């Protein structure tokens, strides 16, 4: 006598987020939990046990009320049976709900909005990179939940470069990017980055929002605060993560800065700049635009046609880090946005945009920066 295994759905783990509304045979209705003390939600990550031999239909019923519902059309859920390889699965957005099927080939299967980057992996990355020759680790401060804000410093050059990621914790591609950057910067046999490190000192913050990352948030920290709206007046009570990083930047100065993010709707990699800051000059702006043009020529995984609108003169939002750093330091400052969907100009039908491709884009960014560093 055979028994259909009991279906169990669980998100009580590092970066997990889902709530089960109903299980009716092989149909599962789910809802994404809101960020703590916030209305934001879109990130999900959950495990299903007892899936083998069943064709399950999942319906995320509250997708239409999420932070960016316009990101769902054309999106495909990521699925893994080993937590290492994450493939896209056919997905549809119908009447405000996100739906997908899975035919179980294994007992366990994981689903996520994008390939996860857990705090466990973050801690392993920090330990591995901090142990490399020539790397200095600094704990710049602590989050509201008491987690470390890690900074890895590499290089001896006079120009201070800041790379920082995951202000919005659900944008996990950003920390995959940082892993790629850190691996390339610590490759002692790489002539491109070794020459760059003679001209610049890198300060790399791979995760600005460890609390939100662990809690399975999309956009906010433990206080429900969007860190990328805190850069003008960060406070110990609401945004110590930003405060400690900005204080460290004040100590070093900033010549070049990249804030690494993910975008829900646009199916491409693109940059956003600092147009509209009070101290805008065409000369500084030209360096930012030159970086984008060079990166587009350097890799098929970047383009300049799609992106955000530009702020009008004097209308830049200085609570956002890219604008704040350009205004505060005269830095060549930019936000890199990567897709939850795919980079449609150079698509991958099996994996879409992925952690591995995010790492390779980091390599391309460093190669372009190496070409430009003398003029920054």
TrEMBL record:
Gene3D superfamilies: 2.60.40.3120, Zn peptidases. The active site is at residue 337. Its cofactor is Zn(2+). It comes from the Bacteria. Residues 115-376 form the Peptidase M14 domain. PANTHER family: CYTOSOLIC CARBOXYPEPTIDASE, CYTOSOLIC CARBOXYPEPTIDASE 1. This is Peptidase M14 domain-containing protein.
């Amino acid at each position: 006598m055979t028994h259909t295994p009991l279906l169990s759905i669980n998100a009580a783990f590092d970066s997990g987020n889902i709530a089960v509304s109903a299980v009716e045979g092989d149909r599962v209705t789910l809802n994404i939990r809101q960020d703590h003390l916030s209305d934001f939600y879109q990130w999900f990550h959950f495990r299903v046990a007892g899936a083998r031999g069943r064709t399950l239909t999942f319906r995320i019923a509250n997708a239409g009320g999420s932070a960016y519902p316009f990101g769902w059309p054309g999106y495909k859920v990521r699925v893994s049976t080993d937590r290492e390889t994450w493939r896209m699965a056919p997905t549809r957005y119908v009447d405000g709900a996100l739906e997908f099927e899975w035919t179980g080939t294994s007992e366990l299967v994981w689903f996520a909005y994008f390939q996860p980057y857990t705090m466990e992996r973050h801690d392993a990355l920090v330990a591995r990179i901090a142990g490399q020759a020539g790397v200095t680790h600094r704990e710049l401060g602590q989050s509201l939940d008491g987690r470390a804000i890690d900074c890895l410093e590499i290089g001896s050059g006079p120009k201070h470069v800041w790379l920082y990621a995951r202000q919005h914790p659900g944008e996990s591609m950003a920390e995959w990017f940082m892993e790629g950057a850190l691996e390339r910067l610590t490759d002692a046999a790489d002539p491109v980055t070794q020459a760059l490190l003679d001209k610049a000192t890198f300060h790399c913050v791979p995760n600005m929002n460890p609390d939100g990352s662990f809690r399975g948030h999309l956009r906010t920290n433990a206080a429900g605060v969007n860190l990328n709206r805190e850069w003008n007046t960060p406070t110990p009570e609401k945004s110590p993560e930003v405060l400690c990083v900005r204080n460290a930047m004040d100590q070093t100065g900033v010549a070049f800065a990249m804030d690494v993010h993910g975008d829900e709707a646009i199916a491409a990699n693109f940059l956003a700049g600092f147009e509209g800051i009070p101290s805008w000059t065409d000369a500084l702006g030209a360096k930012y635009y030159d970086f984008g043009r060079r990166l587009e020529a350097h890799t098929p995984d970047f383009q300049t046609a799609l992106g955000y609108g530009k702020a009008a003169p004097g209308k830049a939002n200085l609570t956002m880090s890219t604008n704040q750093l350009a205004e505060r330091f005269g830095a060549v400052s930019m936000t890199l946005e990567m897709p939850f969907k795919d980079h449609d100009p150079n698509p991958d039908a099996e994996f879409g945009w992925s952690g591995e491709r995010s790492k390779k884009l980091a390599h391309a960014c460093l190669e372009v920066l190496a070409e430009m560093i003398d003029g920054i």
